[in-house]
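Appendix B, example 12.
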Amino acid sequence: MNFREAAEKNEDWIIEQRRYFHQHPELSLKEVNTTRELAKRLEEMGLEPHYFEGITGVMAEIKGGQAGEGAKTVALRADIDALEVEEHTGLEFSSENPGVMHACGHDCHIAMLLGGVKLLMEKKDELKGNVRILFQPAEEVAVGEKTFIQQGALNGVDAIYGTHIWGDFDAPYMSFEYGPRMASCDKFTIDIEGKSAHGSAPHLGVDAVTAAVHVISEAQEVVSRLNDPLNPLVITFGTIQGGQRWNIIPDKVHMEGTVRTLSPEMRKKTDEMLKLIVEHVCAIHGTKGSCTVEYLANPLFNKSEKLCEIAENAAVKLYGENSLKHLEKMMGSEGFSFYMDEVPGIYGFVGSRDPEKGYTATNHNDCYTVDEGLLKRGAAMYAQFAWDFLEAE
């Protein structure tokens, strides 16, 4: 089975879906209209939507006509939430929701998976297994995956496939490489408490900002001196707020940041070191400090050589040997990692960078958009991978 021609025949419909959802973006856990519209489209294709308690998003299942006893089930996932970004693409179908935009490409993921479902439904009677469809909310806040898992989205699933359209990767190439692909994502919060005094008499106060400066400096040495330089590690302080007035010794500082790494061992060590640094640096400076760490996403590894082979062969079957290109592992993160901790999975990338056509903005940029001719490729890949996985022995 080759879904390329079917995807081309359905291209206009796939693009129409992308434009609708791009124009009507919704933030994480608020994807109410998105969920309703997705359910409507699934019903129009003859599927029964299934909802999860207390969360947006929708699931459905294609029951294969040739699925006998013990047949496999493959899950296909697309994330559906948008970002708190004011759009400046100038598209005719720009966001109608002020300050909210599909700047990460989830509108494309929605359209590609809807397209994949449409293609599979046309061959439903020939499917040798079942296909679980997951339109998952709240990827950007790493909540949707965990809730879906807790409520049984992966029950009976033998493998899961996901893909991301990517602004730093050349179009129209795809990547389904084995090994580490994306980093973990931890959010740390640091609070430092000192004592205020007049700015002219610093000896009467305890300067929380000075302590914070030393915390930041010491944290960078975890990267430069405690980490193996061959292991990627990032510690970023993203926000710092402190002080009351220009002539008062600051008594409080609040900082937030993130830790990213591909090493589970270094992840744990770094988080422990941050807490120790805050504790001891603050003690030296006479302040009180606390550090809490929130674990948002695990490192994402394509661990199954078999699934990588199925995905790569599917891409070649559809678009030839030159459809695949190397994409270096990255320090961004993806909640899809939680699914891969539960069942075998494969996560791939579809490139959208095309300077000749003017597509150079990257994901999370307020001008990010794609050549819509790529969408049929993503749709065909969803269908082809599912078909080939169910066909494989």
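The chain has a mean pLDDT of 97. The CA atoms of residues 288 and 367 lie 43 Å apart.
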